[in-house]
Prior knowledge:
Elements (H helix, E strand, L loop, with lengths): L1 H29 L32 E8 L2 E16 L2 E12 L2 E10 L5 E10 L2 E10 L4 E7 L3 E7 L10 H4 L11 E5 L4 E14 L2 E11 L4 E5 L6 E5 L7 E8 L20
Antiparallel strand pairs: 1-2, 1-14, 2-3, 3-4, 4-5, 5-6, 6-7, 7-8, 9-10, 10-11, 11-12, 12-13, 13-14
Amino acid sequence: MGYLINTSMRRARLWFWLFITLAVFFFVKYSPYMQPPVVEENIPALVETEEPEKEEFTRIGEKILYDVVMGKVRIGTSEYRHLEKTELNGHQVDVIAFFTDVVRFKDRETIYSDSESFLPVMVKRKISRLIKQEHITEEYDQDKFILTITKKRFGTSTRTVKKDKPIHNAILLPFYARKPLELEIGWSFTASLPQREFKIRLASIEEIKIPAGKFKTYYFESEPKQIKIWMSADEHRVPLRIEGTGALGYKMVMREYTPPELLRSEMSPDTPFLKSQL
Length: 278
């Protein structure tokens, strides 16, 4: 009898502890109070970042020094400088300074050109021949194709030139050909100068040798035949040799080149005509 009671008690205790064990198991597994805290990951939102704007390409600071040659004789120098932009008549314009210094003749020109088309807007000149000086102002109305030239020497004289298309400037003409993004043989444009009109055509790609070195160039020639331009066939497109744009019949051959300020740190010192500049 006592044996049966003890067996029943042991069995009851066993069931009791089994119940407690199962109760604890289910409490731990399913109770919301025993679940590990949910950690929300701090996932950054996808924010579209704007790419930094590319700096507008500019030739500010560019300088080109030319030898002025008559026949085979060097008679002086010319220098092209691309200066800071300025405002003229409410519009932003490029400013080019061009100095020519040859025997018994000096010409100082400040050329204001449209920043988009590179066509001239105004030119101010000071010409010196020995002790004689002359001041000339050229005003270009490119909408009406009118050029007004005012000369001051002993007195003041004014004359007007009317054309049927935009009017170019002889100094800017070789640099106007730098504009196209791509150049192919046969590409051309019409240059309407005050005295005469030319068609300037890319005739060939050829090598030339000048005091600054040997270069692969774009060669332009005019119709009627007079103007010849050799421009470096690279990203800089520097007019290396220019013939037929001046009234005195001389030619200009590049001697030194200083690149634009923003390009100086990026240019390779292996570029032949930059070796002395970097």
